[in-house]
Amino acid sequence: MIRKQKKNELITLPGGWESVLNESFATPDDVFNLDLAQINRKEKYFLYKKIEANNLRLKALKKELNDLLDMDKALTNAKKKITTLKEQLTILNRDYSKKTIADIELTFHIYSGRLIQNYQRGLGLFIDEGNGDRLRFCTAEKSEHDATMSMSSGQLSALSLAFFLSLNKVYAKSPLVLIDDPAQSLDEINIASLSDLLRCELSNRQLILSSHEDNISSYLRFRFMRAGLSQKPFNMQSHTSK
Q1: DSSP calls for 124-173
Q2: Backbone angles phi, psi at 137, to 5 degrees
Q3: How far from 63 is each of 34, 57, 71, 206, CA to CA, in Å?
Q4: In this structure, are residues 112 and 105 in contact, taking their beta carbons and an 8 Å threshold?
Q5: Phi then psi for 210, rounded to 5 degrees?
Q6: What does the alpha-carbon distance between residue 86 and residue 79 come to, in Å, rounded to a whole number?
Q7: Which of 8, 43, 103, 193 counts the highest number of beta carbons within 10 A?
């Protein structure tokens, strides 16, 4: 009966099939005594195990897909939150810049006018938000160009001092002010203006100024002494740690 149903084998057998056959069919009787119903049951068992394996694989793939979808959803939500936070920070930064400009603009205009007296476009500069995240310094003519682009190194140093002193005047709570080499790149007129500004506007502060030039140090101390303010030189080279 088995022999009648035997057909030519067209499917390539898996590796190790010989050992399986040798163990299962050790004698000819093991082959001729096979029961067709037993073979059908075995075939159904193999089919069941195949379906079971496919279901497990499908379940694993579904879980992997759901995990990827959840991750994509989480990333999308995180991106939305970051975008919203970035927009809020941009608004806060712009509002803070506007408030800072409004708080110090008048003081900065006065200080810059006193420190940059040789600027050819007039006394005093204004602060503008400009484009993007950078401040722009405008002349009294309200030019669209940043005034710093046409300034000399000495004028830029004076501008930096004016900006620093304006922030210090408006916001600083500490009476201590430290400035490293404030007269650097300044000409004689700007140095005189700086000494006037420091002794008039910051007379209630403890100033610590550094300078690499003895004549600048002597001049500034002389101007402070003439204004009735105490001053004291301190030579760093003569004070070395032991």
Answers
A1: --EEE--STT--EEE-TT--SS-GGGG--HHHHHHHHHHHHHHHHHHH--
A2: -105, 120
A3: 43, 10, 12, 69
A4: no
A5: -110, 150
A6: 10
A7: 193
Instruction: Give the 3-state secondary structure of residue 207.
Output: strand
Which pair of tokens denotes residue 110?
């006065």
Tokens of 104: 């110090």
Residue type, 42: K
pLDDT in tens, 109-146: 888 888 887 565 556 788 887 665 677 888 765 566 77
- Is a pLDDT exceeding 90 seen at residue 60? yes
- The torsion angles phi and psi of 235, rounded to 5 degrees, stand at -90, 115
DSSP state of 117: T
CA dist 52 and 56 (Å) reads: 6
Regarding beta strands 136-138 and 126-128, do their DSSP bridges make them parallel or antiparallel, or are they unpaired?
antiparallel
Residue 216: pLDDT band by 50, 70, 90 thresholds? confident
Q: What is the DSSP letter of 184?
A: T
Query: Rounded to whole angstroms, how far apart are CA atoms 188 and 110?
Result: 19
What is the rounded CA–CA span in Å between residue 158 and residue 148? Answer: 11
What tokens does 168 get?
Answer: 């210090």
Tell me the whole-structure pTM to 2 decimals.
Answer: 0.64
Task: Collect all residues with Cβ–Cβ distance below 8 Å to 69 and sequence separation of at least 6.
Answer: none
